[in-house]
Amino acid sequence: MTSTGVRTEAEDSGPSGYAAARLHLLTEGVRSGPPRRAALAGLTDDWLAGLFGAGAGGLRGVALVAVGGYGRGELSPRSDLDLLLLHDGGDAAAIAALADRIWYPVWDLGLALDHSVRTPAEARRTAGEDLKVQLGLLDARHIAGDLGLTAGLRTAVLADWRNQAPRRLPELQELCAERARRQGELQYLLEPDLKEARGGLRDATALRAVAASWLADAPREGLDDARRRLLDVRDALHLATGRATDRLALQEQDQVAAELGLLDADTLLRQVYEAARVVSYASDVTWREVGRVLRSRAVRPRLRSMLGGGKQAAERSPLAEGVVEQDGEVVLARAARPDRDPVLPLRAAAAAAQAGLPLSLHAVRRMATGVRPLPTPWPAEAREQLVTLLGSGRPTVEVWEALEAEGLISRLIPDWERVRCRPQRNAVHVWTVDRHLIETAVRASEFTRRVSRPDLLLVAALLHDIGKGWPGDHSVAGEIIARDVASRIGFDRADAAVLATLVRHHLLLIETATRRDLDDPATVRSVAEAVGSQGTLELLHALTEADALATGPAAWSSWRGSLVADLVRRVSAVLAGDAPADPETAAPTAEQERLAIEAIATGSPVLALRAQTEAPAEEPSGEPEPLGVELLIAVPDQPGVLPAVSGVLAVHRLTVRTAELRSLRLPDGVEGSVLLLDWRVAAEYGSLPQAARLRADLVRALDGTLDIAGRLAERDAAYPRRRGVVAPPPRVTVASAGSRRATVIEVRAQDAPGLLFRIGRALEDAAVRVRSAHVSTLGANAVDAFYVTGPEGAPLPADEAVAVARKLEETLRG
């Protein structure tokens, strides 16, 4: 509707015709990609030109201009229309009426519109004040009206941009950096924003703006293809969701993959990550060049005045054979011969990482095109340079990415291709497989002083998840690959065997420490047999911590570290020839004995709370870090203890980290049987409840007057579940050869308040006794192990154990 409230005949017929043509174009399916985007932009141009012509009449000095993404002709199905009505300052009322005749039909169709009405002077002034406006005007494209007006604005805006580039480009760089801090890196996110995340479409547009400044240019190879792929994914996302969204949510990835004709969502993510990696690397190189040019411009006038105006060659400082530093980058020496020096890429990379400098794009491309392949096995220098690169800490990441961008890593280690850009659909992991491997090496470099063979630690860190590119257990596949890679890069047979063992068992310590009973001699012996030697145990301990720290914040804590350290201490003793202690013969501590006697005397549970802390290993003088609270409970032996205790803790919002239950031998003369529960707990929110309150609720839970199930159900009802990804169903298994004293039942399920209570009640119903429980939570996943026996204290027969596991799984699924 116009400002006068009267519709024209053109407005009545135009939108419906455009809408039908637009729908046909988007549902045709055969013109996807750039052809469809160009066709959609052309169709929209024709429609808007018609609206402009019908409304302009004899009005002169006015033009309709597409800016931003529409100006580039990159219209996705649900893209905004970015429009500028440009005028020379003529009849204001007529220009306002013309604007209404264009904007309202767009709104009537439900299309998003970003619009403005300005003179060229106003447009330039606004661009000078708002960087985003200026970036949009760099892509200004004429649609209808006075072509000279549009051309004049384009020329002026480009001239302004080039003149102001030394001031505006740092502003643009900071804008990109701030967006990256908010949105993260597109190449690693499971639910990325295709436009705003680092390496996305915004960054690709920023690179176009840098090129338009004539100050620097982005590496062109692969950049246009990467941009096209991201636009194709956004098109498919718009069609799949029917919304103007740029976030590739998990629940929509399969549909988007199908829209693009891809195999599955993992293939889709891998393509997105590869494209984002190209854009991110191009951004790094470009902004580095911008900084170099700006520094050069600032320094050169002063140098010329000091040195009489002569042209000075850039200083080159040697770093290694064939490698020099020049102007803040690592470049090849003039005498370097990549075609005769196959170790040169690794030597240059190691030198760059050690110096904390980037590898120049020209150097990497020269090595990628001209270097001779390394012989098999590698010479000692090549292996040493790889280890130096991996041990250089944080600078390793940028140098590794430069080599990978030009395909050098896959040529050095062909098995790398299977893990490159491979997504990890696990909320605990924050990186793709390949970046996680490099992050693990970075973390491992911090522990090289703790081990006698730092070279094996660093290479094991690089290879520990290399099997994730193959079907089956990645540790089993990785063992084979690691042995082959170790031999290829020049390790002898003994070292290759150690690396294979580290890769095969890189999860052994953390899984055993958090899911098994460390007091069970069989647990410690099984780890000792798998590890084989003190040297391998030392390496595996460091690798375990580096792997967990590189995984994400949910994978490591002081508590987990203390459990792993305890296991390592016990295994080390066995490897030294000592027999593991049998907890059945261990005398109770004075506090345990006091609690047990009080429980017998009162006929009710008694408990004690004690904080557990540990100073940071690397900073003994630092503040102690909480490991949780030790909860000791002594209860006269009776049925229902596990569900009662776990239920009370769930009601009080206490998270159980470890749980041990055992019968306690009482002093001579004291009659009765006491169960001792030694648990470690932590408050989910706020502070811990008082011990007296816990004890009162535990008494009520044991005598049946506290309805735990009802309390937990009320709490669940008060906080409805949010929509999200449907969790996989629980899985309950019997661990083979887990213990000689008990049957180990392992539960994997979605973590939830009261989960341990439900498990305890189900095991109680199955008439089995729980000796100990080992609780581990990674992200939203709980992995709990329960050591159970029959009523007489012996392990369950195999068929009975399977039946208990099956019944427990059915209960949890129900």
From TrEMBL:
Cofactors that this protein relies on: Mg(2+)
Reactions it catalyzes: [protein-PII]-L-tyrosine + UTP = [protein-PII]-uridylyl-L-tyrosine + diphosphate; [protein-PII]-uridylyl-L-tyrosine + H2O = [protein-PII]-L-tyrosine + UMP + H(+)
Question: HD domain spans which residues?
Answer: 433-556
CDD domains from the entry? Answer: ACT_ACR-UUR-like_2, HDc
Q: Where is the ACT domain?
A: 630-713, 744-814
Q: Tell me which PROSITE patterns the record gives.
A: ACT, HD
Q: Where is this region: Uridylyltransferase?
A: 1-318
Q: What is its EC number?
A: 2.7.7.59, 3.1.4.-
Reply yes or no: does the keyword Hydrolase apply. yes
Looking up SUPFAM superfamilies in the UniProt record yields:
ACT-like, HD-domain/PDEase-like, Nucleotidyltransferase, Nucleotidyltransferase substrate binding subunit/domain
* Sorted UniProt keywords: Hydrolase, Magnesium, Multifunctional enzyme, Nucleotidyltransferase, Repeat, Transferase
GO molecular function list: [protein-PII] uridylyltransferase activity
Q: Would the keyword Transferase be found if you checked this record's keyword annotation?
A: yes
Q: What is known of its domains?
A: Has four distinct domains: an N-terminal nucleotidyltransferase (NT) domain responsible for UTase activity, a central HD domain that encodes UR activity, and two C-terminal ACT domains that seem to have a role in glutamine sensing.
Identify its protein family. Belongs to the GlnD family.
Name of the featured protein? Bifunctional uridylyltransferase/uridylyl-removing enzyme
Organism of derivation: Streptomyces cinereospinus
